[in-house]
Please model this.
Amino acid sequence: MVKVYLKYMYGFLILVFMITGTDILNKMLPQESVTALEFALRAAGNNRVELEKVLRRYHANAVDSLKYAAACFLIENMPFYTYPESEQLENYKSYYIWLKETRSRSFEQLADSVRQLFGPIDRMQQKRDILEVDSAYLCHNIDWAFKVWHEQPWGKNVSFETFCEYLLPYRIGDEPLTYWREMYYEKYNSMLDSLRSSDSLDCEDPFVVAEYLRDRLQDNSSFYTSVSPFPFGHIGPHYVQYQVGRCQDLTDFEIYLFRALGIPCATDFLPLRGHTNAGHFWVVTWDKNGEEYTSDFMGKLEKIHKSALYNDDFSPKIYRYTFSVNRELHKQMTAYGEEVYPFWNFPKFIDVTSTYGHSFSKELSIPLERQYHDKRKGRIAYLCASRRDNWVPVDWAEYDARHLIFRNVRNGAVMRVATIENGLLTFLTDPFYIDRQSGKVHYCTAGTGKQKVVLYAKCDLGGEDLFCERMLGGIFEGSNRPDFVDADTLYIITDVPARLNTVAGSYSDKAYRYLRYKGPADSHCNVAEIAFYEKGDTASVKGKSIGTPGCFYNDGTHEYMNAFDGKTWTSFDYSHPSGGWAGLDLGRKVCIDHIVYTPRNRDNYIRPGDVYELFYCDCHWKSAGTVKAASDSLVFCGIPENALLFLRNHTRGVDERIFSYENGIQLWK
Model:
């Protein structure tokens, strides 16, 4: 059971009442009928006068009727937005400027430098939009949103409903309130001049405009890192322009950019990815016919059904952020009379899972025989996905033991069902997944049979396949000349490395002073560690590191010397795609018997010397024992068949992922 904190803060109680709609409000105020707009104005307190200035301005002239409706839309939803304020928090955001300027891959070091320079962030003040937004700010946002909607040729293909939800909003999430529309407009609108006057391009199609703009950004280079000096929310329109950071930051830049130029767009997200422990965010926009397109990590816009998000990701659910609160959803959940999981407290999103439904089940039925039989008080059943060894609700349904159905669930990910009992997430089923090929549900119920498991990693290495594949065709050579003109081949890598350390016998029985690994074309000579051994020796030969200098980001972090530093978690990443090599000058001639090599990696293989503990799921996680790794593999015996497994490294790291063990192979879930 995982404890969840479901109590509402008293200061936000008024927000709960607003979401639930007039039925609940009428029970509390039986003599008075209150609209959502009036309730928001009451919540504004002394700031009500500022909001009423906006309403009066647009209500006075019939020409501004749509602006009045837009103002009502913003104000009605304004109580549900807050943002943190702290001078130190803004100082910490300098990290994004320095990250862009240095192009450093030493994210952790840079984040540490920011923390040391500015000191710890003390108490932050939480501000509420409904109490802070003034008339000048709100009118400026509304006027500029209408300006671009009306002046841009593609605006005629944007409905008022779409405009309000996906173009009009003055903010994305919890970033500081900023005048951003005019700044982005002045900086980027001129890029569209040639499109607006073009005879060959459809300048009335928002998608064509978005694609045209993306292709012409002066600096459309971006790079991703999840590392930051502080767990920021949305960092704001100024800092996202550097196009560095998390997927959320890269997505936010496109949202500001498109909306400032009259292109409606939204953020789609998944709470948890299928094979990793994190969620993900990306941009969606529409063409004039309503066809949806996605842009992931600032990449090219693609039709949803052609994107990797449609075909490859196994996440159970996908949602789309809206500016408006999903009052109908909240009304449905609060009707059961119990506190809901925090994700649904103030739901500003809609379910778009079926839009990305390459492989999904319209109905996922949980039969009675697959449910635990202890008595439940909770009336809401939660469908949970995995984050490391924890479970996080990503969908919900009414809990009816004989008719428990979740709708529009994507196939492939491991899930389990839970209710909330006395404030605790309490599981109702064993873990299970829907097979992507057959559509059948497979339950990971621990069996009575026992098995031996041999483990090589603690999380899915699929993201590292590129590094391993880059070694395919790599050549180890020996020579007695430093220019390797007379080089002999010691070994050619013909199989993709499958473990941390791969042993290969030498083809040659000659003695050489100079040894090297020469990466294949287009591999950047990616290699983490190389060791050459004489016959019968347990220690590798030593020498002076030689090779092609220069690494990809020119920051000294991935030079050829890393291949001989004894650290499997550092690597060589040559600055050019081809021509790189790393070697040793032994100072004497040596006959090499065998070679041990390690692909570039993110340190998720089994590392010798680290302490690991294996867990298996049998209703709850149970320990199968703790062991200190003596090599690049671990062996555990007596493990229940068909059980879901989880390997924890007690020494270092947090990248750990659930898996099953089938036919001698770890299968990541």
The longest strand covers residues 581-591. The longest helix spans residues 135-151. The two ends are 20 Å apart (CA to CA). DSSP finds 18 helices and 34 strands in the chain.
